[in-house]
């Protein structure tokens, strides 16, 4: 490629340098003042030489004709041999010449213009043809594209539907499994009950609503009502304080309302703060409690409340009828089997998407689990959050969430950053209560 | 012989300053050799004095055997001058462009006018110029030189003592450089600088005479001490000369300090000596400043030093380096100063350095070098100085340059030159500028007898004659040669451009003498061919090649037809033209193939003297804007393949976007190929980057050549390729497609590629030729050797052969 005519220049080295240069070149070079077009594209097209040559021939001929068709203003040098030096003679000859050839000149100019127009005309025509071709091609393309787009959509939909179906089926199977597990557990329990009946007389496992309790016992229970009201007033906090605390549950209720319904049942509604709170927000509320005096207070606020046992009441309700079931500080009053039953009934009566919220003291807090819990003599055992979470999971609630609440105020905590201090604060001055929040899953089709 | 006059602003034996000393030496020595020398100068005393004050009385006095005319100085507007001068001095050197004036015409006129001037001196020149054989003006900067030289231009020689400084770029300077009959340089470096600034047009009239250095003869008592400084205790590096920042003395001090920091235990000292205001003495760090010293003290310093360092970048010649070499001590010069660095590298008498660190390293090198190494360098330098800086040799060169030597003398010296043992005039290190110096570049008048002459006239016949056309120029050169040989010679042509109608005889009005010899320039058949065929006298055919028809076939079939016919006619011409030549062996081979008998070769004459003019200033200003200029000179024609060139250029832009393509050539819109080329440029969107110049005049063509970075030819058919050689004179690297006569013209120079398929590769090659300085240097060096083949003197023998053959045929 390179002629080795200079002994000082090593041709191979030079070729290598060239290769390196070519490798590094920048293919989209912006030019000063120019549009940043892709030069390489236009070069590689290698301007169609035949077309260019032919058109340039045409142009050249036209240019030449144009030049020659103009009228002359000086006699050609050839005629210098004749004695025509006198200006007037020259002028006359020129005038004559131009006069004679005037018409021809016009014709020539017209021809030249005609040719140029013809050239333009052909170009326009070609462009038109091209454009039409492009349009038809585009239309075809669009059409084909739409078809394939539709195909694609259809496939997508099918795919999604299949997926959903599968998810539902899996959920259903899971629920069934849970249900079977529970039934099995219950069976076991009742078997045990029957076999160890005599030993467990005292524990009073109510598998049926209040069948064993006599009137006197009931009346005995109500004797505590008044006491309880006073007690509440002293330890639980004023009405206003309670209302403040209840606000935190609103988002969960709202979500349930969206997915299920806005009917809410509050178990152990007490003084009715929660019911009132919800009613203000526009929910349909019901409450139940066994304390007559509490109930009276509720009724004085025009709240729909019933004096009835929680489980008994729930059992009367239809499947999938409620948006939310709530119970604040009730589950720690229930015997364990009752709690189980309560949860089962709760999930039954909830609409899909409905929520169950139970708040109870947090045994992880040492002060609570050793002292505060026992301030209420009717409390049974502290209920760890893991246990209650497991219960709800097992019952079929999904998702289940534990919400830690009400830590001691900061002023009471021990100051310091060492690990011992931190740990101590956590265990002694951490959250005093927690709430368990469980949703009934949507689309549960058992079988 | 009439006297020689030296025109200088100040005159005196004791004047300080290189130019003043040079003037004194040249004048007195020429007088010593027996020539009549006069001095024309002003009444002003010296450079530092007030230039408007007359110190000496006006009149003629004889001093040291010379007639010295002193003329009173003009009053001047010193303020205006100082204003322009300080403005000039503030301009940064990097911004100056060759051929472009750094100030407005008014300002440069002020510089020339309010300079040191003498109306009386100028009047004298005008009145008495015929009485003098020649004038030597030196140096270049002063009013009397700038205004005086043009008055006596045909006898004027300029010794500019040029530096690369802002003044050199003023248009008044360029004017006197071009007007002068001859240029005398004191060093090869200065000559190269002048070539760079003023173009290769000055080469034929440039002579590096050199400058001599006085060798001190007496060494009575060897000097051991100068003041408190003892010469033998510590080794030292010497720096001689005026001590100021423009001579880079500060720079050298810094370098020495750096060296001392790295090597604090070194005993090497730095000794400064010479005139200057500030004192640099700092004994603690080893610098000793002796101030102004006596001549013999200076010699002693030189003979005892380890080396002489000359850090100045502003020298047209370095006397002190020569002096050091006469004492056989090595010297160091600054790489960026052409004059000194060229001398040191040619002589191999020392070292070169440019950056501060390099100079600091040099101190270390000298410190560590063995005495033998230093002596070796010193001896190399001594030999060089013997050949170049000895006054006798220098004065001989002056005599030749000024035409003071008679014919016989010249012959004698010519014989001495041819004798390989003689080392009289040419230095053993032939530099490009001096190698052909003694031969002279113009035709030497023939001393041959006229007895063998039969012909009284030899005319030329051309179909058409145009301005700037290679063939037309060749015809003119041939005509001038024939006339110089005593023949009456005219150019007859049928069609001529208005511009040059005076040069020719227009057919068919003028008649051709049938007895005259005829040289017929043939390219394609035309109206004049029958005339040539029927001419009864002795005739010779010069074949300039007919473009092969296939190039024009796609574009202009009619013209292609004409071309084909032309080729067909050649064998018939062979019968009637027994004598034939071609511009190149390529052309001659075509002749031989057509049946011509033993065709010889007459290459086209290319003499750089045609460029001894100032280039077009507007073009010079606009072409030196930082963009690379890629040049091709040639008519817009299908065989020249400008369309391929434009396409390759488009690829070039992807490698090096800041470039433009200049097509110097003429095209007609009525020609299909021209339209085709315009179309391609349009399609590739290169309208902003490709310039088609159309017909240009000589100053414009000169501007294009002076500013071009690459000459790029994609031509597929050339009968000779004149622009290839022209580019070589401008040191433009040539990149050409190997075709037809191109390899023959280029020989071992330029860079040729053999296939055109891969335009990107060719574009990359072009980029390398511009940007890879090493490659560029190699190519240019080869080109500098080859371009001499086409000088008039080189071609002379070929012409003589033709004349001889014509004479014989008569």
Automatic annotation (TrEMBL), chain A:
Keywords: Coiled coil, Methyltransferase, Transferase
GO biological process, one term: methylation
InterPro entries listed in its UniProt record: SAM-dependent_MTases_sf
UniProt KW Coiled coil keyword: yes
Lineage top rank: taxon: Bacteria
Example GO molecular function: methyltransferase activity
Keyword ATP-binding annotated: no
One protein family per Pfam: Methyltransf_23
Coiled coil ranges: 138-172
Protein's name in the database: Methyltransferase domain-containing protein
Species this chain originates from: Spirulina subsalsa FACHB-351
Automatic annotation (TrEMBL), chain B:
Coiled coil: none
GO MF annotation: an example: glycosyltransferase activity
InterPro entries: Glyco_trans_1
Domain spans labelled Glycosyl transferase family: 625-785
UniProt biased composition (Basic and acidic residues): 409-420
Enzyme class: transferase
EC code: 2.4.-.-
Residue segments, region Disordered: 409-430
Keyword Transferase: yes
Organism domain of life: Bacteria
CDD domains in the cross-refs: GT4_PimA-like (cd03801)
Keywords: Glycosyltransferase, Transferase
Protein name as it appears in the record: Glycosyltransferase
Origin species: Spirulina subsalsa FACHB-351
